[in-house]
């Protein structure tokens, strides 16, 4: 015997869903960008027109580019920059450690040094070193050295002390900021493992602090290269002094100043490239994958079509 079971009624066939209309994306027009671009291009055109109409002997710039006096001044500029930064970095690290010390005497001395040298212009400090011979006739370090001040304080030494001691004050603050950026737990963990304070600083704290210290230090090196032009005040023969001498003797004063600016730009560009790769070196532990360098990006673009063509 069969029993009829009522089956549910099948729903009526529904119409297929309507296809959405394609979205018409209308880009936003940035009229301000076009106006700004036109203004900048106009100003650049006026600048080019002004120099083109001026009596500038552009041929003298490549002619004196590798002049013996210019290259000597450039060498002295680079030399005083390197030595001043060495003094600034070494003394800055010492001052930063003194600022971190619990000894109130060393901490106060370091604070006073930073306060004094950061609070007075480097131009004034250069003149101060240069004119100390008016106050001291001799320099007398009893068992080591004794000489007349004018013979001891040469233009090179004036420039070195004026730039290096001033830079040490800024490097002290940069190093102190880098040391403070390292978590205190790192130091506590190192001490718990039996490491001494010096070894902890050398093996644990400083390598991590370098990530913070390197970028501003690179900026300080570039700034030092440009600030070294102030040593003309103490009669040290640098790139600016050489450019002025050659320009005065050859009658192309403005052209030699443009040449000096070109050499400064070349030197700062090289230093900037070195700073970029040095920052990448110390940033290895901060990110899992570093962004590609400009050379790597160019290499990838050149190799991209070849690889695509090989796999096709």
Automatic annotation (TrEMBL):
Keyword Phosphoprotein: no
Membrane topology classification: Multi-pass membrane protein
Domain named ABC transmembrane type-1: residues: 74-275
Membrane-spanning residues: 34-52, 78-98, 110-132, 257-278
Principal location: membrane
Domain of life: Bacteria
PROSITE patterns listed in its UniProt record: ABC_TM1 (PS50928)
Localization annotation: Cell membrane
InterPro entries linked to this entry: AA_ABC_Transporter_Permease, AA_ABC_transptr_permease_3TM, MetI-like, MetI-like_sf
Gene3D superfamilies hit by this protein: MetI-like
Keywords, alphabetical: Cell membrane, Membrane, Transmembrane, Transmembrane helix, Transport
Subunit structure: The HisPMQJ complex is composed of two ATP-binding proteins (HisP), two transmembrane proteins (HisM and HisQ) and a solute-binding protein (HisJ). The HisPMQ-ArgT complex is composed of two ATP-binding proteins (HisP), two transmembrane proteins (HisM and HisQ) and a solute-binding protein (ArgT).
Family, as annotated: Belongs to the binding-protein-dependent transport system permease family.
Name the UniProt record assigns to this protein: Histidine/lysine/arginine/ornithine transport system permease protein HisM
């Amino acid at each position: 015997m069969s029993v009829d079971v009522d089956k549910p009624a099948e729903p009526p066939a529904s119409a297929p869903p309507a296809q959405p209309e394609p979205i018409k994306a209308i880009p936003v027009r940035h009229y301000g960008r076009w106006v700004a671009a036109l203004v900048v291009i106009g100003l650049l055109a006026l600048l080019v027109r002004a120099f083109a109409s001026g009596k500038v002997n552009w041929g003298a710039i490549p002619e004196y580019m590798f002049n013996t006096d210019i290259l000597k001044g450039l060498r002295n500029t680079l030399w005083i920059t390197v030595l001043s930064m060495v003094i600034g970095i070494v003394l800055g690290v010492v001052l930063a450690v003194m600022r971190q010390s619990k000894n109130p005497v060393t901490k106060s001395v370091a604070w006073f040094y930073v306060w004094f040298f950061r609070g007075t212009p480097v131009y004034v400090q250069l003149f101060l070193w240069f004119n100390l011979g008016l106050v001291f006739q001799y320099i007398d370090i009893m068992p080591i050295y004794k000489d007349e001040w004018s013979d001891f304080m040469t233009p090179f030494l004036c420039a070195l002390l004026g730039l290096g001691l001033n830079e040490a004050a800024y490097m002290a603050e940069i190093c102190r900021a880098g040391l403070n950026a390292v978590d205190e737990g790192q130091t506590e963990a190192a001490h718990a493992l039996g490491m001494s304070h010096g070894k902890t600083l050398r093996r644990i704290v400083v390598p991590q602090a370098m990530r913070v210290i390197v970028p501003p230090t690179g900026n300080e090196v570039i700034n030092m290269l440009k600030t070294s032009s102030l040593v003309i005040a103490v009669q040290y023969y640098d790139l600016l002094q050489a450019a002025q001498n050659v320009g005065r003797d050859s009658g192309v004063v403005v052209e030699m100043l443009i040449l000096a600016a070109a050499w400064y730009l070349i030197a700062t560009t090289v230093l900037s490239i070195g700073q970029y790769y040095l920052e990448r070196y110390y940033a290895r532990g901060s990110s899992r994958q570093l962004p590609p360098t400009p050379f790597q990006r160019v290499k990838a673009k050149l190799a991209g079509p070849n690889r695509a063509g090989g796999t096709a």
